[in-house]
């Protein structure tokens, strides 16, 4: 077929009537708009979440055993994360095992319920951050544009959505490029070379050059040049916010807000030396908390190196101990911080632990593959595809509940929620209608 | 070749050409400029009706600016003073010289790296395989349709989500429906990333890379497209190993027959008649850069369908991508003036030259030129040292001896270290790990990324550079503007900046000038 005749046929086919389907109206959850902040801890690489937050699996799926959880907890806590309290100058902070009654667990969050399991990291990351395998607009960019408080433009006296560590949550294309989150690639270093961006003599000189340039630009390009100038001006204003000592965690240990100095936060969440190959969250969590205090509606921390194809036998324990330490620390700190809108930050904040998938391919006799790790393969994918998601915070009213169930082979015995439903829940909590973005409904069961 | 432009498209041209922003009645048609009607370039002739309908004259770009524009587009940076031959009437020989330079291939690799959305964590050897195809097509040694077919069989592409979305968008010029994406994606179901199976005693170091799992094709509908004629990728599982498992096997272990099967999806796309219009659109979009995203969508091929068809016809008949690039770059669409237009009423976008955002790498090349490093190393996807070595090996770029290279690395590290993760390489030397913190992230991604993220990152990098570098006579206003913007400061600028810098002399003034010039809109847009 010649190119022209083919195109003609294509044009005809495009002219065929389109089937118009009415959008299904979906009721918001009872918690619509109940949260002012969202904090996601994203364990990149595929966290074996069901060995900690839904530890009912057989040896193949949970070789670490279980431990008692706090009274009022329906779900089963894995033993690998330990049960040590956190001893700090602020006092003894109860171990995660003692606060599990505040945590809801969804044992089966799957990207493609009923479909082929996702085993590829990139696809899993994109689905979890954007809701689609080829998604281009991440959750944080959606929040940056559609959160009612931000829809008229970002106020420069409050922090916008933030990603600490690059993630698919911060993707944005088209009109969403301008509302991508503020990106922090290294929480252990100062955010700015200097806070003088807003006041340097260079700024005044640049404005002279830009004014000359702008005058001669064709009207066809006026909008693009104006957008550049506008973003630069905004950048200068945000620079003063980012030079706040609260965000210089290591360099300004005595900077304080809400009764916590920076050094207190680092002690609570842990300040591990950089350069470790096994991930540690403390500095990033402390920075995320400061961003919430500075007004950010949503922060996603992404930590890599959870792809334990080997050495998981040795590292899973210390790694998950550090992970649940963040949850215990957040329960403690958020519960003490006064919120400007009244109550405590805990009352207004939702915390969740996510990954792109869980893991499988453990030998039934050991729980590990031949390298003392685990994999993400299509064979017997139940343990892989059903992430156990932990959520906590005041707006989550299903505290201590297990929203579903699995058997020892990690096969679902109850509802399976899609990762898009989870993303829709986050938007719903922040007061954004998720229906224009995802057809999957929010998870109402989190709010009995 | 007979050109049958649909009536609807002709109407659109007329509509666009005659649109009057003031609401006045459009003027009666005029004769098109002879430079268009008598041009040997078919794109100019296709453009002529629009100028005729709008009664507009051509306004040529200033030769120095045109030189910079051409160099930025083909080489990723502009040299001062401009190379000879740039201002000549006949640009084609000059463009051929640019396309013969190693930097042209680098620039082309960047374009395709972004178009293909190559995952940064992919192994370097898979990037290199893609780049070999890119180099071949941009040297004119590979037809474009063969290039498309080859790319879609590459591990770097197959392991990504590109086949489900990008393949349609980039090569066919449209987004796929959900059904189409799922259907075409099934042809790639057997691709996985993972480790080669290690030996039972686990003494060997497993190698990460592309694996093929034929079992994935055994499920219903696996590895078979139904919407594209029932084509299937048929690879049989390997015999079971000593443990009784038929495990996935490494891409590198595939037989010739199996590799031929893997090429079937690419062959399907490459045979589609739509690839030529899509390729024409890509070239026009890249070199004209009219689109500002969702708010201001402007696609040259939609606004000027005659031009798109002329370019598509040329591509289909020759398959020659670099020649098609020259066709666009020598056309009047590209050679018109973009700034300093004195006319009161705005001209349509096709009646002014392009004014595009510099991509992150181009911008960084310009900024880091101050380090004295012979660049070409501003490639965000790979550890710097490995990339630089590869460049030196392949193209003989630069003449840095080993100590010089070390100094350059040290300087770049010092400039970027506050926001850059470091990895310890096998040599034991720290090197920036750009797989995680790419310069594209620091400076904004390609496209209309002018948000707060870009602004802060850009300002911060500029500040870093200027704090480190700006001192001495090279940072007087005249020298800095000449070096980076290719012009002299106007008297008005000179006096206004002198006033802005009152009380700031010596290193203070040098740093301010550095920040002003490197952070300016004029450096950002070209």
Description:
- By secondary structure, chain A is of the alpha/beta class.
- In chain A, α6 (about 260-270) packs across α7 (about 280-295).
- Chain A is built from 11 helices and 14 strands.
- In chain A, β9 and β10 form a beta hairpin.
- In chain A, strands 8-7-11-1-12-13-6-14 form an 8-stranded mixed sheet, sandwiched between helices. In chain A, strands 2-3 form a two-stranded antiparallel ribbon.
- With about 525 residues, chain B is mainly alpha-helical.
- Chain B has 3 domains: about 5-100 and about 275-350, no CATH class; about 105-270, no CATH class; about 360-440.
- Helices cover about 50% and strands about 5% of the residues of chain B.
- In chain B, the strands form 2 sheets. Chain B has a 3-stranded antiparallel sheet with strand order 1-2-3. In chain B, strands 4-5 form a two-stranded antiparallel ribbon.
- The longest helix of chain B is centred in the C-terminal third of the chain and has 18 residues, at about 450-470.
- The radius of gyration of chain B is 26 Å and the shape is globular.
- Mean pLDDT of chain B is about 75; it is low at about 1-25, about 200-205, about 375-385, about 395-400 and about 415-450.
- Classes of the chains: A alpha/beta (about 450), B mainly alpha (about 525).
- The interface between A and B is large, with 83 and 97 residues.
CATH fold node name of the largest domain in chain A: Alkaline Phosphatase, subunit A
Helix content of chain B: 40-55%
Gyration radius over CA of chain B: 26 Å
CATH class assignment of the largest domain in chain A = Alpha Beta
Terminal residue distance of chain B: 36 Å
Secondary structure blueprint with pairings:
The complex is a heterodimer of chains A (448) and B (526).
Chain A lengths: L2 H13 L21 E7 L22 E2 L9 E2 L7 E3 L2 E3 L9 E8 L10 H10 L8 H8 L15 E3 L17 E3 L16 H15 L6 H21 L13 E2 L2 E2 H8 L12 H12 L4 E6 L8 H25 L8 H4 E6 L27 H4 L1 E6 L24 E2 H12 L18
Parallel strand pairs in A: 1-11, 1-12, 6-14, 7-8, 7-11
Antiparallel strand pairs in A: 2-3, 4-5, 6-13, 9-10, 12-13
Chain B lengths: L6 H12 L15 H4 L4 H13 L8 H13 L16 H8 L2 H14 L8 H15 L5 H8 L3 H4 L7 H7 L5 H8 L5 E5 L12 E5 L36 E2 L5 H7 L1 H7 L4 H14 L11 H4 L1 H14 L2 H9 L2 H4 L24 H9 L15 H12 L6 H15 L5 E3 L5 E3 L6 H5 L8 H18 L7 H9 L5 H10 L6 H12 L2 H4 L2
Antiparallel strand pairs in B: 1-2, 2-3, 4-5
């Amino acid at each position: 077929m010649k190119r022209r005749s083919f195109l003609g046929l294509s044009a005809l086919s495009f002219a065929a009537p389109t089937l118009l389907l009415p959008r299904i109206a979906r009721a918001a959850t009872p918690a619509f708009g109940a949260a002012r902040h969202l904090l996601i801890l994203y364990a990149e690489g595929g966290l074996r979440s069901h060995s900690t937050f839904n530890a009912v699996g057989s040896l193949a799926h949970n070789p670490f055993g279980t431990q008692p959880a706090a009274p009022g907890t329906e779900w089963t806590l894995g033993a690998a994360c330990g049960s040590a309290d956190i001893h700090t100058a602020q006092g003894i902070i109860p171990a995660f095992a003692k606060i599990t009654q505040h945590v809801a667990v969804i044992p089966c969050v799957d990207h493609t319920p009923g479909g082929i399991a996702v085993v590829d990291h990139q696809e899993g990351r994109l689905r979890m951050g954007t809701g689609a395998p080829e998604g281009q607009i991440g959750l944080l960019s959606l929040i940056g544009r559609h959160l009612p408080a931000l829809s008229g433009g970002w106020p420069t006296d409050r922090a916008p959505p933030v990603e600490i560590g690059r993630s698919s949550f911060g993707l944005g294309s088209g009109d969403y490029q301008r509302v991508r989150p503020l990106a922090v690639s290294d929480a252990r270093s100062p955010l700015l070379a200097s806070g003088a961006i807003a006041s340097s003599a260079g700024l005044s000189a640049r404005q002279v050059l830009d004014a000359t340039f702008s005058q001669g630009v064709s009207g066809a390009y006026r909008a693009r040049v104006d957008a550049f100038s506008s973003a630069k001006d905004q950048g200068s204003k945000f620079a003063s916010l980012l030079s706040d000592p609260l965000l210089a965690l290591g360099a300004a240990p005595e900077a304080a807000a809400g009764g916590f100095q920076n050094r207190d936060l680092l002690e609570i969440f842990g300040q591990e030396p950089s350069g470790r190959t096994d991930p540690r969250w403390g500095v990033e969590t402390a920075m995320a908390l400061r961003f919430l205090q500075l007004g950010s509606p949503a922060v996603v921390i992404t930590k890599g190196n959870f792809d334990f194809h080997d050495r998981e036998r040795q590292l899973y324990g210390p790694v998950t101990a550090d992970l649940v330490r963040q949850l215990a620390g957040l329960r403690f700190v958020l519960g003490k911080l006064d919120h400007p809108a009244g109550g405590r930050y805990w009352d207004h904040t939702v915390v969740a632990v996510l990954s792109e998938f869980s893991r499988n391919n453990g030998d039934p006799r050991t729980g590990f593959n031949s390298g003392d790790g685990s994999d993400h393969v299509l064979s017997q994918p139940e343990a892989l595809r059903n992430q156990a998601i932990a959520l906590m915070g005041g707006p989550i009213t299903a505290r201590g509940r297990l929203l579903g169930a699995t058997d020892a082979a990690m096969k679902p015995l109850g509802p399976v929620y899609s990762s898009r439903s989870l993303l829709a829940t986050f938007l719903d909590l922040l007061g954004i209608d998720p229906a224009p973005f995802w057809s999957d409904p929010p998870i109402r069961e989190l709010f009995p | 070749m007979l050109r049958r432009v649909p009536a609807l498209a002709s109407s659109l041209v007329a509509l666009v050409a005659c649109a009057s922003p003031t609401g006045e009645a459009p003027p009666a048609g005029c004769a098109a400029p002879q430079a268009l009607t008598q041009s040997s370039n078919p794109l100019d002739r296709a453009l002529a009706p629009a100028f005729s309908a709008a009664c507009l004259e051509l306004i040529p770009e200033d030769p120095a600016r045109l030189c910079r524009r051409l160099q930025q587009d083909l080489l990723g940076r502009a040299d001062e003073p401009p190379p000879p031959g740039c201002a000549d009437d006949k640009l084609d020989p000059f463009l051929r010289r640019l396309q013969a330079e190693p930097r042209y291939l680098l620039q082309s690799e960047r374009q395709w790296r972004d178009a293909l959305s190559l995952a940064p964590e992919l192994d370097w050897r898979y990037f290199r395989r893609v780049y070999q195809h890119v180099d071949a097509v941009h040297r004119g040694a590979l037809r474009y349709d063969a290039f498309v077919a080859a790319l879609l069989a590459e591990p770097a592409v197959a392991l990504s989500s590109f086949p489900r979305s990008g393949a349609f968008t980039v090569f066919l010029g449209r987004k796929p429906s959900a059904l189409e994406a799922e259907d075409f994606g099934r042809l790639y179901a057997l691709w996985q990333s993972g480790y080669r199976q290690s030996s039972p005693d686990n003494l060997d170091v497993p190698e990460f890379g592309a694996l093929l799992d034929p079992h994935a094709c055994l499920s219903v509908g696996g590895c078979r497209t139904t919407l594209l004629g029932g084509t299937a990728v048929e690879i049989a599982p390997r015999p079971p190993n000593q443990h009784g498992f038929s495990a996935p096997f490494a891409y590198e272990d595939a037989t010739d027959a199996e590799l031929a099967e893997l090429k079937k999806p690419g062959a399907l796309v490459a045979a589609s008649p739509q690839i030529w219009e899509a390729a024409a659109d890509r070239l026009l979009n890249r070199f004209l850069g009219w689109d500002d995203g969702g708010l201001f969508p402007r696609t040259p091929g939609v606004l000027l369908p005659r031009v798109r068809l002329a370019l598509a016809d040329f591509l289909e008949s020759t398959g020659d991508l670099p020649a098609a690039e020259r066709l666009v770059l020598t056309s009047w669409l590209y050679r018109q003036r973009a700034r300093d237009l004195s006319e009161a009423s705005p001209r349509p976008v096709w009646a002014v030259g392009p004014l595009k955002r510099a991509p992150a790498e181009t911008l960084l090349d310009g900024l880091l030129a101050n380090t004295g490093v012979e660049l070409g190393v501003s490639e965000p996807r790979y550890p710097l040292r490995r990339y630089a070595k590869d460049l030196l090996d392949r193209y003989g770029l630069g003449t840095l001896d080993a100590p010089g290279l070390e100094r350059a690395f040290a300087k770049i590290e010092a400039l970027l270290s506050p926001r850059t993760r470091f990895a310890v390489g096998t040599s034991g030397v720290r090197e920036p790990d750009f797989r995680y913190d790419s310069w594209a992230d620091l400076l904004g991604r390609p496209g209309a990324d002018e948000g707060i993220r870009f602004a802060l990152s850009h300002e911060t990098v500029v500040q870093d550079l200027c704090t480190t570098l700006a001192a001495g006579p090279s940072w007087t206003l005249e020298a800095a503007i000449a070096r980076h913007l290719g012009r002299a400061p106007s008297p008005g600028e000179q006096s206004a900046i002198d006033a802005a810098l009152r009380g700031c002399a010596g290193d203070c003034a040098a740093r301010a000038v550095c920040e002003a010039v490197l952070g300016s809109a004029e450096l950002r847009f070209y």
